[in-house]
Structure formats: structure tokens, C-alpha cells
Amino acid sequence: MSSRTRFLRQIGVYGYDQVEPIILAALLSEDPLLLIGRHGTGKTYLLNSLSEALALEHRHYNASLVSFDDLVGFPYPDKDGLSIRFIETPATVWGAESVLVDELNRCKPEHQNRFFSLVYERRVQGMPLTKLRYRWAAMNPAGEDNGYLGAEPLDPALADRFSFIVTVADWSDLSAEEKAAVTDPRGDGAISRDGGELRQFLSERLTRFKNSLQSPPSHLLGYASTVSTTLGQAGLRLSPRRTRQLARNLLAACCVSDLPQERLFRLVLRASVPQIATGEAAPRETIDGAHRVAWEAVALTGREKWLHDFAIEADLAKKAGLLLTRCPDPDTGSVAVSQLIAGESLERVAAFALAVQPHLLESEAPPVGPDGLSDLGRIFAEASEVNVEVEWRDAHRNPLNPPAGGKWDAAVPGHEAAIKCMAAWPKKRRLRATHYLNHLVGKTRKVPENWADLLRDFERCVTTAGKLGKNEDIKSHGTTTE
What is the pTM of this model? Predict the structure, then answer.
């Protein structure tokens, strides 16, 4: 699924298209996020809507009004007399999964110090907040020259604990389409729901993010190091911790966005400079200039560029084409297959293996090495030989032969569209598609709700692989074109 799906629009949030990759990256990494913008630009609405879409136990505090007791509850001694407990209320922070601290730069310094621990350590008074995942904050631009009396710049140490610092667009920055959507009052008061799409997207990308943390690309690390040095030379210091955080931000953004990497890196850098919140000079031209220097120093070429192009390609058919006709060498192909298996969903990996593996095996010089062929072969075998059979029939209830040790009778949303989608296919391809769907049922113990879409993606991937498998690069008998 592409980040261009515009998840924020699906939950009724408009005007954030330009920074959506940053918002998604913050959700994926679960690192602290700070929004800075003028009043009425939807900062609070966005963050509260995200908590609704993700079904989080949420707390919303106004930092200019909150007291410490509001956060932790009323203290009382424990029975042993040696420790303190707190009387919890619906507003206390202990059970929260997400916390929004609004008007962060209007609260007293002592409260900022308490929020420091919450933001950076997920702790209050040294006590862990075991359920807390997301820490968000919002503030107006600091300084009287911005028209906000009492809005002070953040302490540099606190600002540095926010991984992503996003400057929010004002009315004059919006497109005509965004202005029309923002103006429409029909969404007021509605609960933000998207049928679980955002949660599913983040879940699918989480494995890829964790793997990338274990083996970050060398060009990405080089970019973060070079840009930090260049900014320092221009008088804009990034601490060593901040440079490491920039690399983490870049990895998260690459996992959620299909923007061209040069453009994405610039966007992430702009949202990773803490001086934006501290009142220090952080000119956009200085940040963009450092980006250009760093990008030119590490611009992708050769093998790394191909791996990047393969990883971000959202269309399975095009991904198959990249592997079958443009892969630089078998070792690179094996790396690509490994990254595909680690970072993509079960549905996409199974479809890719069923479509591509036969051509790789029949090729005289496959573009994937032994390790990659073995990995794809394992998935191909699992998808071709499953113990779950689906009785295909035109009915609203679709009985499934139960797997070993269990049984169920599942409704199949969209199965009529799936049957129609396969009706005109040649027999062999229809059989392969049935294996594919049965494999998904057997693995997940549930019927995919988007069968029709999965089948269309599968069919396009098989068709592309079949055509390319006949060319001079991949000498094949075209098994999957049947």
C-alpha cells in the first residue's frame, strides 16, 4: 500500500498532504512528535483523530492549565507506609496509550520539566508508564512578534527530545482542493474511523522498519552524518544524539513513503531540526543547502539504487519486472528477495512467489542467487500445497474445510467479485489463484476481506512474469501464463 493513499484524508484530516510521510513515520517508530502552527490549523484535531483511528486509550492535556495532580491523581501512602499510590481518574495518565500535550510552550517551567520525563522516558515522577506508546504535543509559534503572548520558545533540551518537529501549513499554504475540504463542516463531531486501514498499514510496515534498524543502508547513514557536519559548519548544531535520531527518522520515513528518496530525505531533515522549536535561527535555506550537499555526497547509484527502486515499488507487477529484467546480479536479487519477505505482507509475498518462482527455476541464468531461490521456493511450496480447501460457490456463506484441530464457517466479503474476477481465466491460472487464496486462509485462519483486489494484483503479477519470462533475459516455458 502506498503512502499516496492519503490516510489522513480518510479520517477527515485535510491540509496535511505535504507532511503526511512524516506523520506516518512518527506513528511507525512511535517516537515523539511535535506540531507547530498557528491557531486553527488543525494540530489538535489531527492528533485526536489519529488516536480515534488507531483505537488508542487517549489523554489530551492543556499544558497551560494542567496541574500535576491532573496527570497522576491524588497521592496516598501504600499499606506498607514505604511507597506512594495514586487515586486514578479518567484523566490520569497511567492507563494512556497516547498522550497529547497541547499548548506545550505556555506552561510553567516546572511543568515542562515533568513533561520532559514523559516525552523522553515514558515516565512520571520516575514511575514507568507501561502502556504509553505515543507522545504528541502541539504549540503555537513562540514570541510576541508572532502575536502569541505567553508562548515561549521551548527549552533546547526538551525540544531535542521530540524526534519529529513539524511546521503546520496555514490557510494561504493550502491548495484549492484542500481549502474546499477544510471548509466543509459536515465532518464536525464525527469519530475518525477508516475501517482499520491505518492500523493495518503500520502493522505491515513494522517488520520492515525493525529490519532496517538492524542493517541501515550505508548511504542513509552517510547522509545523516554529512548533513550534521554541514549544518554545524553553517552554525546550526545537531548533537550526536540528534544525528542518530535523524538516521532513525529517515529509516521510518522510507518504510512508509514511496516519494523519491531525495525529496523524502529533504522533507525528513526539515522535520528533524529541533531549533525550529527553540527560537534559534534555523533558516529553511540553510537546511535545504545542507541537504543538497549531503545528497550529492551519497546519491544512489548502481546496486543501491536498484535495491531502493525495487523496495519502494508498490505495484507487484512492476516489482516482478524489475527483478526479472533489470536486476544487476544474482547476489543483489537475493538481497531484494530477503527484503521483500521481511518487509511485505503475507498476501504480497505469496503472490510474488507464485508468479515469479517458476520462471526463475526455468531460467538458464536466474537473476536471483541460491539463497533467494530457496527463500522464494519455500513460500511457493507453502502456497501451492496447503491443507485448507475453499468451496467456491455463489453464496453469502462460504463453508471452509477446517484445518487440523479447528473448524469454522466464515462469511466471505467480496467473494462473488473474486469469483467473477477469475471466471475468464485459463484453468491453470485459476487453479493457481485458488491455491493462493487457500494459502492465505490457512496462514491467517481468516478469510481476507479484499479477495477481489488481491486477485487482480495477483493476476497482473502473473501476467507480467509470464510475458517477461519469455524474453531473452529469462528463458522460460511460460508456465504461469496458463
Answer: 0.68
